[in-house]
Amino acid sequence: MLTVVLIMLAGICFGYLFRTVPFLKHINRFIFLAILILLFLMGTNLGADKSIADNIAVIGKQAVVIAAFATGGSLFAAWILWKSVFKGNGNER
Amino acid sequence: MKGSLAIIVFFILGCLAGQSGRLPEFVTNGKLAGYALFLLMFLVGTSIGADGKIKEIFKSARPKTLLIPVATITGTLAFSATAALFISEYSVWDCLAVGSGFAYYSLSSILIMQIKNPEVGTQIAAQLGAVALLANILRELATLVGAPLFVKIFGKYAPICSGGATTMDTTLPVIVRYSGKEFAVIAILHGIIVDFTVPFFVSFFASF
Questions:
Q1: CA-wise closest residue to B101 among B133, B124, B78
Q2: The whole model's pTM is what?
Q3: Distance CA A36, CA A30 (A)
Q4: Interchain contact A6–B (C-beta under 8 A)
Q5: Which among A54, B55, B108, B208 is most buried, taking Cβ atoms within 10 Å?
Q6: Which residue in chain B has the smallest CA separation from A57?
């Protein structure tokens, strides 16, 4: 999936070259619009797929397990970092 | 919050439209979604390139604050891999691909669907994509709702790490509220860095 990364890099160059164009100030609105369109289209893919509706309980369970581990792992790492940065002195940085 | 709601509404509308069976094949087979993804990636790139503030934010960063995104990434990936022990249907790589969405649900799920599709077929690819979508929405929700608790138990970096790629937009308000105002710049920087890694990690893990 190199294409996606290349397209993003092309976007970065484009944005940098045209950074003074006032139109680009509203880029976040277009990003939001693109996300809405994308989510709608993804919904149509998933909705048209009968196997998703049939397996929604399994899919939901798997999602909860991975989300719990991913979130828990980041919290654990945050805790280790917090402890090691402070070494008990309670002040920040 | 309003934004997340609109996203969920559009997603549900799409599901209903897809289920009705009245949409033409070229809409529901994922080709159109693939092009929409290209558009989104180009726009995201443009916004990064055009943002003059990003240089300043990076300049104001201390080496120590860069450890926070490192913690987020290592913690998430190590534990996501462990999740495979409890999910017989998916491999370690699949779990890593889902976990490395870092709460960026739209991008991670569509990437997984697009990359897995030619390899394992539409059905399995769509299922893993649905898992990625749900799991990463749950992570964002957990951060929004759990931030005060996370700060109490795991310290002030906790909601930043759990927020993953969303700490520069959707979860920024709760981080500022519960970790403190002084964490705003750190959270934005963290969000930019983690956000940037999502397409790389997801496509890498999904290609196994």
A1: B133
A2: 0.80
A3: 10
A4: no
A5: B108
A6: B131
